[in-house]
Amino acid sequence: MAREAYPGVVLDLLAAAGDRPVFEHGARVVTGSAMLGLVRRIAAGLRGAGIGPGDGLAMMLGVTPEAFAAIMASHVVGARVCGIRPGLPDERLRHLLRRDATAVVTDATTTVVTDATTGTEATGATTGPVAGPRRLALADLVSTPDPGDDPKPAGRPHDVARLVYTSGSTGRPKACAQTYAGMAAAWAARPAAWPPVVRDLAARLGRYLVFGSLSSQVMIEYGVLALAAGGAMVVADPPDLPGAIVRHRGSGLVITVPRLRRLVAAQRADPVDLGCLRALMVSGSPLPAGLHREALDVLGPVVFHGYGQTETGMISMATPADPPGSVGTPPAAVDVVVRGPDGAPVPVGVDGELYVRTPAQAVGYWADPAETAEVFVDGWVRTRDLGHLDPAGRLHLVGRARDVVIVNANLHYAGPIERALASHPDVAEAYVVAVPDADTGEAVHAFVVPVAGRTPAHDALRELVARRLGAACVPARITEIAEPPLAPSGKPDKRLLTGGEPSA
């Protein structure tokens, strides 16, 4: 009988897998039974260290079978799990460890520096002391004797199961708090609850490539989906593309928009056989319709474009059969309402701010009641994204509610300007920022990534914007760039285009 408490459903999947491989790391192949044994040992080690419900565990781990088992074991003991992605700035890392962690779990890939004066530890790339959490070595936890009994999840439904930090693309990263009840409501591990688009995707994840950090919300949830579909997670770190796909015979992987653009360019210039590839899950930022069409043309019907937020999980997903320019049709279990400035729903086809409800959404931001009250409203999550639903029920995104340029005291959203620019055949991607202007207060500065081998005429781009959006939206300046600067999350970071502070 399936267990309701998370991660019981994942443990059931591992038990059902038995001798089937579920994780590959180089020459090492780990079966479902062996992974379940790792979970049992690590959970016993955590309990022996006094970790239980309500305790915060920071996970600073590489991409290994033990890392996956440690995440599941941390949930078995009912801890509040916070994954630490690689590359965090020192200040951000210290803040996170001080506030959110009772202990930090580290492995051989983690650098630990002990401050001789204070006796505290700086974990990761930090150079200063970190006060608070004690260190638990993953190797020690793995060496705990296997208790042999069936792991009993200790997380209570309303306990916070994990903290997942937003990318910080619109400000300081916030910790989204997801409860054990929310984790149990997620559909990744439950085939009976899969919407049609997820069922289609799951069938393509026989060899799902993992890299970067298993603590990534997207990386781990697609990994569980692959496991539930009878597939395996395959370590491909670093994810050099297309080489990693060929080398590991990868059938699916998560990919950012900049990385997709580079993969498409590489296949155009020097194509390799990607016959094994069945699914590219584009995540992290909107996919320009032109690049979407080009990717389908070059790579074939393998592009899935997901839309979601850290606060909500998946909201919708475009399949390879959906027309470029949309993010697909929200599943029946997801509610989407498009609201106007007065908060009232707007008609189909009219742009407004998206409010959503999903089965596994967060309950708020950890230790941030003010921001929680602004975003989590009467059971809805205010996405602060702008978009509309078309007559077929597909969702279209048009920009961020806070991403604006104020020209002559009139507010203009950056998203429509970027979409207009990216619709030109010579432009692959476009990014718009506001810059000070002595005459108008602010003006539009556009950064465009040209299509390979083409040079967009700036006057033609300005005329295109003027025709569609009016003179106030016409870029005062256009700069061509090879690719946008990226935040540590892998998303384009527009702040860096004008020398601003990077997102954390």
Query: What's the number of structural domains?
Result: 3
Number of helices: 14
Name the CATH homologous superfamily of the largest domain: ANL, N-terminal domain
**Gyration radius, in Å:** 23 Å
Notes on the structure:
The protein is α/β, with parallel strands linked by helices. The chain has 3 domains: 8-183, ANL, N-terminal domain (Rossmann fold, 3-Layer(aba) Sandwich); 187-400, Rossmann fold, CATH 3.40.50; 404-498, GMP Synthetase, Chain A, domain 3, CATH 3.30.300.30. Helix content is 27%, strand content 27%. The protein contains 14 helices and 27 strands. Strands 8-5-3-4-9-10-19 form a 7-stranded mixed β-sheet. Strands 17, 18, 20, 21 and 22 form a 5-stranded antiparallel β-sheet that branches. A 4-stranded mixed β-sheet has the order 2-1-12-11. Helix 10 links the parallel strand 13 and strand 14. Helix 10 (257-269) packs across helix 11 (289-299). It starts with 7 loop residues before the first helix and ends in a 24-residue tail after the last strand.
Write the topology of this structure.
Layout: H1 8-17, E1 21-25, E2 28-31, H2 32-48, E3 56-60, H3 65-76, E4 80-83, H4 90-100, E5 103-106, E6 112-114, E7 121-123, E8 134-137, H5 138-142, E9 160-165, E10 175-179, H6 180-185, H7 196-202, E11 207-210, H8 217-228, E12 232-235, H9 243-248, E13 252-255, H10 257-269, E14 279-282, H11 289-299, E15 303-309, E16 313-318, E17 335-339, E18 352-357, E19 364-365, H12 369-375, E20 376-377, E21 380-389, E22 395-400, E23 404-407, E24 410-413, H13 414-422, E25 427-437, E26 441-450, H14 458-469, E27 477-480
Parallel strand pairs: 1-12, 3-4, 3-5, 4-9, 5-8, 11-12, 13-14, 14-15, 26-27
Antiparallel strand pairs: 1-2, 6-7, 9-10, 10-19, 15-16, 17-18, 18-21, 20-21, 21-22, 23-24, 25-26
Helix pairs in contact: 1-2, 2-3, 10-11, 13-14
